[in-house]
Amino acid sequence: MTGKMDCYGLTHTGPQQLPNQDQFLIADLEKSMRIHLSSLSLDNHSRLFGNSQAKLLMVADGTGNSETGDLASRLATDSITRYFLNNMPWFLQWDEDSDDDMCDALINAFEQCQKRMETDVQEHPERAGMGASLTLAYIVWPQLYVVHTGHTRCFLYRQSNLHQLTRDHSLAERLVTNGTLEEDEVPEIWQNLLLNSIGGDGDSVLNPDICKMQIQMGDALLLCTDGLTKHVPDSVISEILGQDTMADDTCVRLLSEVEAHEGTENATVVVARFLDIGDQDVTMIDSLDVETGNTQPPPKAKKMKTQPKPIAGKHNG
């Protein structure tokens, strides 16, 4: 049995062509070696590459005005990328003994991002108030880590059910969770009042949630900004993820639904599908091992149950 991972991402500015404060990133992490001199029959200064070690998926949504929001999301995405490149021990294969260190390193990536944004605001006071929601998925097959702050989201589609792996760090979410208001009673503006996010004003609270579990063949992951979830019902998202389409077509269909539901803002999606393809020859998709396991609760922050309660099943419309 052969497994493949199919990834794609798209962003859309919305019908009013607003400045795009969303960012996304899909990266393949692999070892490399630059040869300077050798007696072997290798060209000097050539670079050798090893097999893929991990995948990094990320979406960010900037807050602030149109200029600082765009800058904040770009800065957050760039900061995390540089942290993975220079500090993250991603070249190590996953095992249980290194699991706590991996979680600590992922949380530290967000903390370093926070420090960089604070430094930027100190150097440019006119950027005060900028910040970003950020959701990151790090896959070392078969292990999945999701780190999150703000109101960007990560969903898992498994066996015809949609599971939300993150919770919004917004005033709206808190009021609904503690029973103060029903979901349909919360003013929309409160969805944008973030209680936990990356920010550069020095007063921002940063306490990232981390969730870990094991991926199975047939699963699909969706990372998205609130431009999707504000306008497209979970049942429709579940229906689209349940269709037998490649990741690029899935992204197109999701953003088409934003337009169909008259979405008014930026919307960004990243989709990863874990495919059991047997002996088929699939190009432009990275190979994966196929050993699977059960889901596990995270070691810290918000714990995910072994069998998460689905928020939407397969929709037959």
TrEMBL record:
Residues forming the PPM-type phosphatase domain are 34-274
UniProt keyword Hydrolase, yes or no: yes
Q: Which UniProt keywords apply?
A: Hydrolase
Region of interest (Disordered), ranges = 289-317
Extract the InterPro entries matched here.
PP2C, PPM-type-like_dom_sf, PPM-type_phosphatase-like_dom
EC number of this enzyme = 3.1.3.16
Named from the GO MF annotations, one term is: protein serine/threonine phosphatase activity
The answer to keyword Hydrolase applying to this record is: yes
Write down a Pfam family by its short name.
PP2C_2
CDD domains recorded: PP2Cc
- Uppermost EC category: hydrolase
Record protein name field: Serine/threonine phosphatase stp
Organism name:
Gimesia alba
Q: What is the lineage of its organism?
A: Bacteria, Pseudomonadati, Planctomycetota, Planctomycetia, Planctomycetales
Q: Which gene encodes it?
A: stp_2
